Amino acid sequence: MALACGLLVVQAGVPAHAQGLVDVQCEGTFTGEFTPALTDQPQDVSIATQNSYATCETGLPGSSSVTTSEPGESCVNALHELTAFDETITWSDRSTSTVHWSSVEDTGGAATFTGTVTAGLYAGDAAAKVTEALDITGTNPELCPIGEGTITGASGTATLTLTSL
After folding, report:
1. 12-50 per-position pLDDT tens digit
2. Around Cβ 96, how many Cβ atoms within 10 Å?
3. Which of 75, 42, 44, 48 is nearest to 150 (CA)?
4. Nearest partner of 155 among 16, 1, 10, judged by Cα
5. What are phi and psi of 64, to 5 degrees?
6. Among residues 107, 140, 137, 157, which one has the least CA distance to residue 33?
7. In angstroms, what CA-CA distances link 107 with 10, 38, 127?
8. Residue 140 in contact with residue 117, Cβ under 8 Å?
9. How far apart are alpha carbons 9 and 13 in whole angstroms?
10. Is 141 left (phi over 0), alpha (psi -120 to 50) or beta?
């Protein structure tokens, strides 16, 4: 199950940026669905993710929906490499921020996304998102790496931090 947890995004600690001011730091949740379901064989997959950044120490709460296409994904190597993508966050005051996620570090149960706010509120800020998959869905997802199960989705916690440079 630990291998499957590294599959999406993971919540641990968010890296601090000593140079800048934290504009947004929010805790929340994510849910993601894989189409087709992940198996032990690499295949092109669409990942539809819903993010809620509901509890904020700094900044406004926000949410987003994003669908990405990932080539060659399987339950064995999910998110070891990331196709760069954009996430547009809608804040509670209806303003938006577009984050370009350019890399992911998968730590086998957790993932840290890094990028930059490219448009809207906080444009130019460094962005970090840390997620932890707490629930993995599918047919015997714990057996997926050996070919006897599938993974259809994951959900868990997410932490978003936007830091001015």
Report:
1. 344 444 468 999 999 999 999 999 999 999 999 999 999
2. 14
3. 75
4. 10
5. -155, 160
6. 137
7. 9, 19, 18
8. no
9. 13
10. alpha
The answer to whether 37 touches 74, Cβ cutoff 8 Å, is no
* Number of neighbouring beta carbons within 10 Å of residue 95: 13
Tokens coding 87: 């996430």
List C-alpha distances in Å: 31 to 7, 28, 152, 153: 12, 11, 11, 7
CA distances from 131 to 11, 12, 51, 101, 117 (A): 3, 7, 10, 14, 18
| Rounded-to-integer distance, Cα 134 and Cα 110, Å | 10
- Which residue type does 53 have? Y
**Could you tell me the two tokens for 119?**
């448009």
Identity at 137, one-letter amino acid code? T
Encode pLDDT of 106-125 as tens digits.
776 688 999 999 999 999 99
Q: Is 162 exposed, middle or buried (0-12, 13-18, 19+ CB in 10 A)?
A: buried
SS3 151: strand
